[in-house]
What we know:
There is one protein chain. By secondary structure, this protein is an alpha+beta fold. The protein folds into four domains: 30-95, CATH 2.40.50.140; 103-183, CATH 2.40.50.140; 198-276, CATH 2.40.50.140; 280-399, CATH 2.40.50.140. It is built from six helices and 20 strands. It has helices at residues 3-24, 103-112, 180-197, 284-287, 369-374, 388-406; strands spanning 31-39, 43-47, 53-57, 75-83, 90-93, 115-124, 127-132, 135-140, 159-168, 174-178, 203-212, 215-219, 224-228, 249-259, 267-272, 293-302, 305-311, 314-319, 341-350, 355-359.
Amino acid sequence: xxxxxxxxxxxxxxxxxxxxxSATLPKVGDQVKxxxxxxxxxxxxxxxxxxxxxxxxxxxxxxxxxxxxVQAGDELSAVVASIDAETGxxxxxxxxxxxxxxxxxxxxxxxxxxxxxxxxxxxTKGGLEVQIGGHRAFCPxxxxxxxxxxxxxxxxxxxxxxxxxxFEGGRRLNMVVSRRALLEQEQxxxxxxxxxxxxxxxxxxxxxxGMKDFGAFIDLGGVEGMVHISELALGRVGHPQEVLQLGxxxxxxxxxxxxxxxxxxxxxxxLSIRALAKNPWxxxxxxxxxxxxxxxxxxxxxxFGVFVELEPGIEGMVHISELxxxxRINHPxxxxxxxxxxxxxxxxxxxERRRIGLTLNPDNAPLSAEDRQSRPQDDSGSGSGLGTFxxxxxxxxxxxxxxxxxx
Length: 407
């Protein structure tokens, strides 16, 4: 191979190397992370990894009190504000977007899709009034957040990042901006990371973003799942608002992940809070021994008796024969009602079958071991327990009658 051929080969290799490096360099508008190399009087220099370095105006890092809290070695998240065409020098803006003032800078931000910092100063018909570098802009209500905000005044006074979606120059700038566009971009980035962890059985942390009669919606980090009302707690829940509130951070277990054909919501995620709670029946036999006095709330009445919630996840049943003391009643509603709090005595506990028999009659003693062995057994296999304690308590009454007759 001649020297000329060697030289041409070296040039080709150099071009490939430069192209590879160029492909890895950030672009204007990209969200980047790096490590602060040094903090100067006017600029902060940041290592973006590889061969890329960048600088940021230190004013972007000053707090309200004028101090700069960052130092060399700190990690910094920022937006690529510009790249010098000749030198390739990368300039960064803060997480709220670069603070811009002149019309030319704002127009450049519009053309390049850069985020800009704005101060929400008030509400107007159909949206928000935003001040950006001394210029007035309008943010439609639909672009104020990812979700519809009924009372836009709650945002007044906040400083947020916006993207300019319409720009008309002149003596008085006409700008329309969107906060939602940037939130969606951030959400998409978070969603990619979340989906890597998303699998059945995973335990994740999320934020309550919405509630309906049937359940609560949880943001897991750019991806939303739902906790059905039956999976909110061990006990009965009438509405999610009884146990949750908007913005609350919760720990959830992933029950199912189902793929859908909806590009906006590509997966249906079923979550559970209940699955992470301790099983209250694990030590129920020790805590609710026969003869124990307990207090609870009647959750529902049936023709054969009433169900009493003793604690979340544990209900006992009072047979109708244990409600009327010495008088006969035809239905529990004659003496008690749903929602009423009552004092009761534990008659029998079956932790394996998740059943507790109660009495409201203080004169009735708990069943003895002999009584429990002689009661009829329920072999139906039903998990509902309807009528089982009725048989149990009828056997108790019959045994007591037999004993009284023999005495």
